[in-house]
Design goal:
The chain is of the alpha+beta class and 362 residues long. The chain folds into two domains: 3-206, CV3147-like domain (CV3147-like fold), CATH 3.40.1610.10; 227-342, CV3147-like. It has eleven helices and 17 strands. Helix 5 links the parallel strand 4 (98-101) and strand 5 (123-127). Helix 1 runs antiparallel to helix 2, helix 1 packs antiparallel against helix 5 and helix 9 packs antiparallel against helix 10. The two termini are 35 Å apart. The model has no long low-confidence stretch (mean pLDDT 93).
Length: 362
């Protein structure tokens, strides 16, 4: 069922996207400001269910690609993504009829609302990950045979590149190089698909889930409660640990923010030490001895232990206290095809994937 998103909804959407974004997807504050300005200028955005889209409608995901840390200093104007979409439409010889959110992540959950407001196009209630992943090919669209190209990558200087590739992995490799040359981050229109294919490949209902998670964060904070427990109850998640950051190793390499956190447990976890590895997103949580607690593609989500707000990888700093939760990924990610795309082995972690279950930690 279709509904309208106004400026007042964006706070919840940004928070929900940041939580499900597992530390990645870009700073939600930047995307929220971009979407708020566009809605103020053009009016509210209509979110529609996938089954409301005609089978022959051109559906296009729009998103940011690159290192989220770059976006803290290199703010997009919004013109880049509109240019990318327009050039993709020109190449295809067809106008888009609906937009898609490629991932549940802070900036990438709100950018599509900005584009939808500016173009008047509806935004489909769903995404291609149900979380955020660092590489472009790591979407359910790939599992369903939908090509990422033709795609257009655009930057803040007015440059754009139209790409056609032999596979989605090659799109990632080549577009990542372009994004690095564009300053470390770029705006993208890619994975053009018709409505029939979209309905098969999309993870349905995630935009509504993002909004509901954000509203839960807001309501729990208003009631002076930390939202962690309520969010875990909503998502079937479990409490991994709460700890204080005692070391942050982080570098922007090859268009990614890569690094490792070391946390010392507090409260019920006092006396324990934990490691969290990330590549834009949190991908692996371990004990100090290297025993895995939770791993990709399941979600490792972080909240500030004091304020109850989502924390992204670029916000992590020495002395911060953080509550980590684990949430099971969509079942598609637990299949051989899903694990090939985004399992621990792909990222070079020497662990066989083991799904997280709520019985492991409470």
């Amino acid at each position: 069922m279709a509904y309208q998103v106004t400026q007042s909804d964006l706070e919840a959407i940004a928070l929900g996207g940041a939580f499900l974004g597992t530390g990645g997807g870009g700073d939600p504050y930047i995307g929220k400001l971009m979407a708020r300005q566009a809605i103020a200028e053009h009016g509210p955005v209509t979110v529609i269910a996938a089954d409301e889209v005609a089978d022959d409608t051109l559906c296009v995901p729009v998103f940011m690609m690159g290192a989220p840390t770059v976006m803290l200093e290199k703010l997009p104007s919004g013109d880049e993504i509109l240019k990318a979409l327009a050039e993709l439409e020109t190449f295809l010889g067809k106008k888009a009829g609906a937009l898609i959110c490629v991932e549940a992540g802070g900036l990438n959950s709100t950018i599509p609302f900005m584009v939808a407001a500016a173009t008047g196009l509806p935004l489909i209630d769903g995404d291609g990950m149900g979380r955020a992943f660092p590489e472009l090919q790591m979407v359910t669209f790939t599992m369903h045979g939908i090509a990422s190209s033709p795609m257009v990558v655009a930057d803040d200087k007015g440059n754009s590149a139209l790409m056609s590739t032999i596979s989605n992995l090659w799109t990632e490799r080549l577009a990542r190089v372009v994004a690095v040359q564009m300053g470390g981050a770029a705006l993208v229109a890619a994975f053009p698909m018709n409505g029939a294919d979209m309905k098969k490949a999309l993870l349905h209902g995630t935009m509504t889930t993002i909004r509901d998670i954000g509203n839960t964060i807001l309501s729990e904070r208003k009631a002076s409660r930390h939202p962690g427990a309520a969010l875990r109850a909503m998502t079937g998640g479990a409490h991994l640990f709460t700890g204080r950051v005692v070391d942050v190793q982080r570098a922007t390499e090859g268009g990614f923010a890569r690094g490792k956190l070391t946390l010392r447990g507090i409260d019920d976890f006092a006396g324990q030490e934990f490691l969290v590895h990330f590549q834009n997103e949190f991908l692996l949580a371990e004990t100090a001895t290297g025993a895995p607690i939770c791993m990709t593609p399941d979600l490792i989500c972080a909240l500030d232990a004091d304020m109850g707000l989502p924390v992204t990888t670029e916000q992590m700093r020495y002395g911060m206290t953080v509550e980590f939760s684990a949430i099971p990924a969509d079942p598609q990610w637990h299949t051989p095809a899903g694990l090939e795309l985004a399992g621990p082995k792909y990222f070079g972690y020497d662990h066989e994937f083991r799904p997280f279950t709520t019985g492991e930690r409470a």
